[in-house]
Structure of SufD family Fe-S cluster assembly protein:
Amino acid sequence: MKLNEAAENVLKVIDSYGFKEQGAYNLRLNGMAVCHGDSRHIRIVKKEDKPGIDIFISGEAKDEQVHIPVVMSESGMKDVVYNDFYIEDGADVTIIAGCGIHNDGCSESRHDGIHAFHIGKDANVKYIENHYAEGNGTGGKVLNPVTKIYVGENSIFTLETTQIKGVDSTERETFIELAKGAKLFVTEKLMTHADQSAISNMDVQLNGENSSARIVSRSVAKGTSRQVFHPRAVGNNLCHAHVQCDSIIMDEAEISSIPEINAKHVDAQIVHEAAIGRINDEQLTKLRTFGMSEEEAEAVIIETFLN
Amino acid sequence: MKLNEAAENVLKVIDSYGFKEQGAYNLRLNGMAVCHGDSRHIRIVKKEDKPGIDIFISGEAKDEQVHIPVVMSESGMKDVVYNDFYIEDGADVTIIAGCGIHNDGCSESRHDGIHAFHIGKDANVKYIENHYAEGNGTGGKVLNPVTKIYVGENSIFTLETTQIKGVDSTERETFIELAKGAKLFVTEKLMTHADQSAISNMDVQLNGENSSARIVSRSVAKGTSRQVFHPRAVGNNLCHAHVQCDSIIMDEAEISSIPEINAKHVDAQIVHEAAIGRINDEQLTKLRTFGMSEEEAEAVIIETFLN
């Protein structure tokens, strides 16, 4: 499968593990699945009733990967895709998703990925989602993902989402349910610049006994961009949750962090921490003594903060 | 002024500084101002157009007190009162307010205190508000305070609110604006039991350069009671804010903490911490080795936590 240069570049950025046409994979380009492959333990089936795929992951899968990147290189497309993951008991898998937009035109390009994860018992699932946009056109680059994750008994779900740059507008909706002994690890990284806007709503229901969640959100807002975070952790049983949101505000940006912790059970233990502040001046000065310009020093600090 | 025993007891609980008919004071009993006095620097004037008083505090007032307790000992009353404080530049004053309800009847007793504070420059104002209710009747005891506080340049405002016990339902609305160099210190303590419900919304606007806010909220929820906290700190200038909410959850209670931190300026530095958890088991065990019953040990821990 040969991609044009723009698509190829975008694909490289969003699939940091390296996209290859081998094992289990599905590449969606400009609203169409252009190539796909199954592996022994992972089967990808095109949906009949709507755009998108069903991904069946066997309990036999151990330390396996599935790559399902989405690339939009044509201006003015609106792509809605429904992907459902059915993950059997005991599976151990890393799912590399993400969406990259190259928009050189003046019309809006928009991708709405609606993902649902149905996870059995004792599974270990890592889901990586990178969002990135580029292009010299005036057309907006919009990504509105909806993610629903049902984590079964004693399973572990690791969610790593990164909005690298270039996305003009995003509204993320994430809903997670944790069964008995299930563990959730979330790392959300987000950078906005210019007049971009980002809204992230996350609802974590700790339903099962001994379920736990650790959510870390780190963001940088530059220019006149706007960010709103609304993570919500609801303890419905004996459980632990820790939510941490740290943001760096720059220029004329605005950041709003509205975490909600809700204990509905006497043994629910939930902690939240949030901080918004400007870039560390001491660090900046220190780096500048090494001969860096202010911009270079800022870039280093931001990269360190986000990684 | 002779009060009946019930009213006398309630007054003692809510005015922890000790209410006396001297200096500046105003006692409101069952919807009527029953006694009042001015001091040299503090003048209390009954409003003409609606229930309530205007309190004028001169800049000459130094380390002075004004007591304005409200007592409701008759069942089935609904009392709405508007109190406005006009505090001149440089005043140094402690205002002891609060509302106590004794309700032995089967009708609801409700007090809505609507307070506004207009504070000049370089003033130091401490506002203490205790809420308490008692009585064997089935009638509800409801307190819905609305508090608006405008803190002038380089003034300090200290707000200490305590809901001691017995209040069946409360909805607190607090709005605060801070001018240049103004400092706010808030301590909110709240205990709910049985099937009580408490909602506290607080909106702090840090408008002025170098304004700062430190908000500490501590609560205990027992029985099947419900608590919702929604503090909001908005940084509109170079400013610092620190919001901390800690709650102990017991029995079948439910606590929701939804703090919002909102930075609208690159030099706004805002930190939030919140934690909800059950009573510390180690502390409980330790105290019980001293021969305390579980209830006694719990009471000690709660008292320590709230004080």
